[in-house]
Amino acid sequence: MYDEVNNKVDVVGIGVSTIDMFTVVDAFPKTREVQKASNMVLDGGGPVATAMVTLAKLGAKTIMIDNLGDDWSGLLIAEDFKKYNVQTHCLEIFSEQTSSIANILVEKDTGIRAILYHPGSVPEIKDITKYTHIIQGAKVLHLNGRHLEASLAAIDIAKHAGVKISFDGGANRYNQNMRQIVPKVDICILAKEFAFAYTGETKIDRAGETLIKSGLELVGITDGINGSWVFDNDIGVFHQPAFKMDNVVDTTGCGDSYHGGFLYGILHNMSLKKCAEFASAVAALNTQALGGRKGLPSLKTVEMFLRNH
């Protein structure tokens, strides 16, 4: 039986979890081309899911709310969460349904990715209220707009309980439905492409200013190797450069792990500049292995990295 008192978590995640097949190639294949892959691995994925794993690897208590099929991929997704100590009792398993799978091609020399995605057949989360006590007991609710109706209901639960709401606006995730979520969040970290689509601006500083003027308190805009920008009502704006890594194996999960690192900083009352620096270090270290999670660092590794940089 779930012990509500002793199992309160730091962060609750709502999103879609996947199993990712990573295939390393010399170059993306052309029509009818047969090419030998230099490496292939399976890893867990999904933006919110990987943020939860990142936080757990750093030592935070996290839980994932999602629906999975009872197929092989669903079983692997659940087992991967358990491996990283992400709580799984809010994963609902549907019989004779399939879970989400992604096939990710990674260029060997650049780490650039191409992604093929199959969403599976599991339904959206219908009733988030059965998890009300879990959301109310958390410090942060993290989501990206998947399971839209459930996410909107969870936001209302979190707001009434004084739980911070964190949003991940991914590069290819913008649609009009996101306008129902963004104005309600406390921590809004967006990929540059999402920020431009949402605001209609074409420059990062203008996009951030527009978002702050809309009423948001904290906005982050990420731009890969160009780093991230953080906008805040009190301290204004600052730029956090990305850490340069000599050997980038794979950039999958960098944005997701940035979110996890940033939220870890928030949980531990770091300054916003320290949050961004810490998040950038986590993301940089995650490029050192194939897969969105296999390179995720421990807290000790991040602290050592920052001492040397």
The run of helices and strands is EEEHEHEEEHEHEEHHEEEHHH
CATH topology: UDP-N-acetylmuramoyl-L-alanine:D-glutamate ligase
The CATH superfamily is identified as Ribokinase
Instruction: Give the name of the CATH architecture.
Output: 3-Layer(aba) Sandwich
The percentage of residues in β strands lies in 15-25%
> Helical segment tally?
9
User: What is the average of the pLDDT values?
Assistant: 95
Number of strands: 13
Helix amount: 25-40%
- Structural class, judged by helices and strands? alpha/beta
Oligomeric state of this protein: single chain
Stretches where pLDDT is under 50 for at least 5 consecutive residues are: none
* Major β-sheet profile: 9 strands, mixed
The best one-word shape is: globular
Distance between the termini: 46 Å
Strand line-up in the sheet with most strands: 5-4-1-8-9-10-11-12-13
The overall number of domains is: 1
GO molecular function: kinase activity
Domain Carbohydrate kinase PfkB: 11-297
Keywords: Kinase, Transferase
Organism: Pelosinus propionicus DSM 13327
Characteristic key phrases:
309 residues; alpha/beta; 9-stranded mixed beta sheet; 4-stranded mixed beta sheet; PfkB_dom; kinase; Ketohexokinase-related; transferase; Ribokinase-like
